Amino acid sequence: MAALCESFTLCGLSPTSGVGLGGGLLALEPGPDPDHILLTDRGRATTLFKVSDQKPLGCWSVKHGQVLTCPVVCNFETHEYIAVHDDKVLRIWNNEDINLDKVFKATLSADVYRIHSLPKGGPVVLFRGGGVRTLDALLEAPQQEIENIISDEVIKWSEAFVEGKQPVLIFTTEKDGDVFVYLQKLKTNSLHKYKLEQQESSKPMSFTAYMKNKIITLLCLCSDDCVYKVLIPLQQNTEEEVQILPKSLLLNLSVSGSVLKGTSFVVLDKDHIAVLGSLTTSYEDPKECLTIWNTKFQTLQTSKELPLGTSGQLWCYEEKFFFAHGKVLTVIMYKCETSSLAAAVGKLKDGQTPGVSAFVNWNTLGLEELADSFQSQRSGALKHESKMALRSKRNAVANIQTDNLSVGKVLRNLQDVPTRIFEDELKQLMSKAQALDLQASIGSVVTALTSRYKKNPKHYHRNFLLEIVQTYDLSYSLCPDLMAVALENKDVRLLQTCLLRFPDISEEIIYSCLEIFLSINEDYLRRVDVNLESVICYIDIESDNKEVKTEIVENGFSTEQEEGTWDSQLAEEAHLKSDGELCPVGPQKAALLNAVLRSAYSEAFLLPHLRNLPAKEAVLFLRYLFYLYVKCSEKINTTLPGMSSPTINQIMDWMCLLLDAQFTVIVMLPEAKLFLSSMHKFVRAQVRFYSELNKIEGSLQELQRLHQQKDPQTYSIEVLEII
């Protein structure tokens, strides 16, 4: 049994990556750690990501005018990175290197097609002419002559394996419609050429392969919507004649009248493959889907619709799928279990195969088949009920069809109904969603609501959308259009809730939220229902917009209780000196900005957006950040009170990021000079204070050690002099 699990957005994609334009990313390759991947775009840059943290660990790029022409790979033996730009220029560097102009460089004598890095065999370089070299052999003589093996043929795909500590390379070529397969063993320097059995109606479009028991299994995704299998033994005789490789049908990508037009696929295990493609039916528009198929029992196990479109590329590492979805790189985890007939047909007692019913054309099934299919999907809920008679099943078919309507069919039936009826129907659909696929079902409902708004802007389900986001654990990648619709309607409460609850919001959307929060009028915000939990404990604004300060009593001390012991004039002077005393924004805007501060982001992707922030809004935001910084510094534990308040680390990170993005603009503004001067003095005073604390740190530790050694039995007063 196979299932798709939770998904998240790894990063945003720049326009140069080609998403939506048919180009796509250049490639993804595994990094030095199982949790790391290397992303190479169709341009100048490569980025190392830590997948679990959704954060980039490093980014390198070649100079303007240079282009990376094959995917960057990691040498697993040395933990170095290898890239080729402009077809022939080889670069090698490590994590400490920043500028690729200063790293190792070698110019080769022939164009490189691809570099394959093997965990136990080292990097192997495949040239466009079919020549193969190990990286070590190539570095000994970079200008060595590379033989041209394939003449007029064009390499379409390649893969490398290790067999008995020996690198083995397989690649396919094409010439005049014929497909050839080459098998190269590097240590023995043996090369075998094969010709793939060809059919007019079945042309290979994509390849993948795996090796087991000294046999390479080559899988071909063909134009007739089928996957074929080709077996290639590693032990071959020395015949020079080109052998014909026969194909055998492995899987037909169709079910109940629906056909999947695959663009790429990967092997998951001996019984499962994943296919990315476009599902076509006779009664619906094509839609792109990610699917998992059981090749042993010829069944579709699970699927996920991808409404934003993909680049047609699919990668799989460490039980995670990676693919471009709209303008982001999406990661979906999956699990595969041992194949059994019960799992293949969806009749396991403790589970259900989600998403399969969307592929079944219920109109083509007979009454008995329909009832049986529905019964199998609900077997867990109905296992204690008595079996219905065949006549009862036939009478219940109409109700069963209604229960199994997808969100798309519900929308078609309710296109012109009033908003209240529309929401009630979707609520019923949500209540019937199985626990195993609840998150995906709710995401489909949100997508349905946003799609209805796009078709008719008067249908904006503000309260219903807010209720869904507050109730269920959703993510930005599950309903990417939701925040865009909320931004269009300036629905600040929904945006605030999404920022606090979604873990994977793109930096572009975070910036858009920040910009609209800063620019929106304070008078308008006073009329809006905003969650004030993050500010209610340290900000209180009266109707005349003057702050009433609320002091938090810590360790039994309050400035109001002890005011008789302090000089009121000194206190007033200290109040006037601090430019962070009065909050520069109202409580509603402060609560919205706090939601932005708590959002996860990547500096590399957020910084370009912050440079576009208008100067007026940038200064206002910096003043508010400084106000929060002063507030945190007043407290012993440097923590703001209240629910969902930003931490001091988040505040400082945003201050540094904003200054990096806007420093040139801010220093030129006359109205910002006094504020910057005050901020500089405050930070300088804090640095001096902590420097003094560092000086006595050793003495304090020694005192603590002496105190632990002593165990006075009676009351005593000790006077300790620190010199």
UniProtKB/TrEMBL annotation:
UniProt KW Glycoprotein keyword: no
One GO term (biological process): maturation of SSU-rRNA
Entries under Pfam families matching the protein: Nol11_C (PF20998), NOL11_N (PF08168)
Alphabetic keyword roster: Activator, Nucleus, rRNA processing, Transcription, Transcription regulation
Transmembrane segments: none
Nucleolar protein 11 N-terminal domain ranges (all copies): 1-335
Cellular component terms per the entry's GO annotation: nucleolus
Alphabetized InterPro entries for the sequence: NOL11 (IPR042859), Nol11_C (IPR048897), NOL11_N (IPR012584), WD40_repeat_dom_sf (IPR036322)
Name of this chain's protein: NOL11 protein
Biological classification of the source: Eukaryota, Metazoa, Chordata, Craniata, Vertebrata
Gene: Nol11
